[in-house]
Amino acid sequence: MVTVCVDAMGGDESSDVVLEGIHQALVSDPELQVLVAGLPEVVEPFCATHARTQPLVCTQTISMEEHPATAVRTKRDSSIVCSCRAVKDGRAQGFFSAGSTGAIFTAATLEIGRIRTIKRPAIAYAVPGLSGKKTVFLDLGANADARPATLVQFAYMGRAYARNILHVKDPSVALLSNGTEPTKGSEAVIAAHKALVEAGPWFSGNCESSDILAGKVDVVVTDGFTGNVVLKMIEGTVKYLYTQLKGQAAQNIGYAVGLSLAKGALKRIAVDLSGEEQGGAMLLGLKAPVLIGHGSTSVAAIKHGTLACAHAIRSNLASKIASDLVRES
Amino acid sequence: MVTVCVDAMGGDESSDVVLEGIHQALVSDPELQVLVAGLPEVVEPFCATHARTQPLVCTQTISMEEHPATAVRTKRDSSIVCSCRAVKDGRAQGFFSAGSTGAIFTAATLEIGRIRTIKRPAIAYAVPGLSGKKTVFLDLGANADARPATLVQFAYMGRAYARNILHVKDPSVALLSNGTEPTKGSEAVIAAHKALVEAGPWFSGNCESSDILAGKVDVVVTDGFTGNVVLKMIEGTVKYLYTQLKGQAAQNIGYAVGLSLAKGALKRIAVDLSGEEQGGAMLLGLKAPVLIGHGSTSVAAIKHGTLACAHAIRSNLASKIASDLVRES
C-alpha cells in the first residue's frame, strides 16, 4: 500500500473532475490509498463514500493567478501547503496536484525539502518522441538561470528518472544548444558543456531543440528559462497547426472531410503531447515524489497523475536520485 | 532598376534550382537586375541567355558543413564572399543566398559592414501568425548572448522592419520570457525588460513563446541562443505532427483517407512556416539588405527570396534603420 496526497482544489476544472479522477485511480490500483486535500465540503462527502481515502481538510486555496511565493507564505492552510506538510509528516509518501506550478514548487521545496546534496530541484517532463521513445527534459522553469554545476546535477537527476521510471539502461544525456558543436551556445551553455564532459561518459554532447521530439536522446538538460520557452513553443505550434487546419477545412470541403477523418489521429497526438497519460511533470531533487498535472485538467489526467505518483513512490525514485548522486559525483 | 546579387551556389539543391528561381524572379519583376555569383560553368551560360543578368565569376564555394568564420577567412574567392564584396563595391544593392547562415552573416558583416551605430547585427524572420498577421522575431542566432542595450537595438531594428516591410504603424515590441510578469526570466532577461521599459512606450512587456505563432505581437526580441532554439522547436514540432499523422494513417484507413484529403492544407501550412513565400530571414543592421533563404531550397523559395531582397532595397530599409536609431535613441 502507498498513500498519495492529491490536491482536490487544483486545476482549471471544478473539483468534481479531480474527485472523479481519484475515484478511477482507486479502481485501477487496489494497492493505492489517497489523502484528499481540500475544503471540507469538497473532500468530506467524497471520502465518506470511498474506501482507501482520507480527507485532509484545509480552509484556503491558491489560484493559478496568485504570486507563488507570496501565496505559499500567506496561505498556510491552503490545500497545496497542507498537502506538502502531510508528506513531510509521513501521512502520504507523495503529492500530486494540477494547481499552480510555482506554488507547488515553492511549497514542496519548503515543506518536503531537498535531498541533502541537491542544490536546486528541477521540473522534468518525459516528452514523447517520434521513435516511440520518451526524452526526459529538464528544467522546465524552476531555475531561470542554471550554473554549470547545477546542470550537472540536472543530468544526474534526469538519468535517475530515465533509469527508474522509464527503465532505460545507462541513459545518455544531451545539453540543449543552438548547434551540436561544443563551441555553440551562450557563454553559460559553453561552460556547462565543459562541466558535463568532465562529469561522465554518458554525456553525448549538445543537441538541438528539434531533436527533443525526434526521440533520439534519453535525457536533455537546459536551464529553466530555455526549457519553459521550448515547452510552450511545442504547445503553441500544435495549437497553430490545429487552428490552421480547421481554418482551411472551413474553406474547402475536401479538407473538411479529411480533417474530420483525421480528427482521431490529431486527438491521439494531442493526448500524447499533453502528458494526460503520463500524469504530468515531476519535481526532481525533493525527498518525496511530487507530480504537477500538465495541460488542461481532465478526469484521465488526474487518474494518470495519481497513478504515476504512486509508481514514483514504489520506484523509490527520491532515494535512488540521492544514491546516484553519491555514486556518480 | 535595382540589382540583387544572388548566390547560385547556395542551398541544398543543385544550382539549376537556384537559376530557375532567378529566371522566375526576372520574369515577375521587370525592374530587377541580377548579379549571378558562382562558378563560371554555372553562371556564364545562364547569363549569356538571360537579359538583365551579369555573371559574378568566382572559383570557390562554401558548404553548409564548413566552419563559417574559417571558411570566410580562407575562401576569399567563394561565391558568398565575392557577393558581399560586390555589394560593398556598389555592383549590387543587396544580396540573397540560401547558403550557410553563419558564413553569410560573417562575410556580410565583414565586407558590407554594420550601420555605424549598430553594435550587433541580428537575424530576423517574419513568422506567420494565426491572425494572418506576421510577427518579426529576432535574433535567430547571430548573437548567442545579448546585453540589455543590444536587445534595445534589436527592438529598434525590428520596429523598422515591421514598419517598412510589413507596413505596421508604430509597431509594438515584446520581450520573450517564461512568463508575462516583469519579474519573470533569467537575470539577463529581467535586466533587458528594465532597459526596454526605459527605451520607449512601444514596449508592450514580456510575452511567452506560444504568443509568437498566435500573431498577437508586432515584434518579439530575444537573444540569438533562445531565438534559434525556439525556431528549431517550431520546425521540430511541425515535423513531429506530420510524421505522427502519417504513422497513424498507415494503421487506419479512415485516417489515411483523411490525411490524403487534408494534405493540401498541411502543405499550405508548411509553406507558410517555411518562409518560402517571404523569401527567408533578413540580416538587420548592415549597410545593405542581406536575405538568407530559409528551409529547403526550392525554385519558389529562390524566386521569392530574390524578390524580397529587391523589395527591401526599394524600401530603403538599411537607411531607415539608421535614421530610426538616431531618432529613437
From TrEMBL, chains A, B:
Subcellular location: Cytoplasm
Sequence similarity: Belongs to the PlsX family.
Top-level taxonomic group: Bacteria
Lineage: Bacteria, Bacillati, Actinomycetota, Coriobacteriia, Coriobacteriales
Enzyme Commission designation: 2.3.1.274
Catalytic activity: a fatty acyl-[ACP] + phosphate = an acyl phosphate + holo-[ACP]
Protein name in UniProt: Phosphate acyltransferase
BP GO terms, sorted: fatty acid biosynthetic process; phospholipid biosynthetic process
Keyword Lipid metabolism assigned: yes
Role description: Catalyzes the reversible formation of acyl-phosphate (acyl-PO(4)) from acyl-[acyl-carrier-protein] (acyl-ACP). This enzyme utilizes acyl-ACP as fatty acyl donor, but not acyl-CoA.
UniProt-listed SUPFAM superfamilies: Isocitrate/Isopropylmalate dehydrogenase-like
GO molecular function, one term: phosphate:acyl-[acyl carrier protein] acyltransferase activity
Keywords: Cytoplasm, Lipid biosynthesis, Lipid metabolism, Phospholipid biosynthesis, Phospholipid metabolism, Transferase
PANTHER family recorded: FATTY ACID/PHOSPHOLIPID SYNTHESIS PROTEIN PLSX, PHOSPHATE ACYLTRANSFERASE
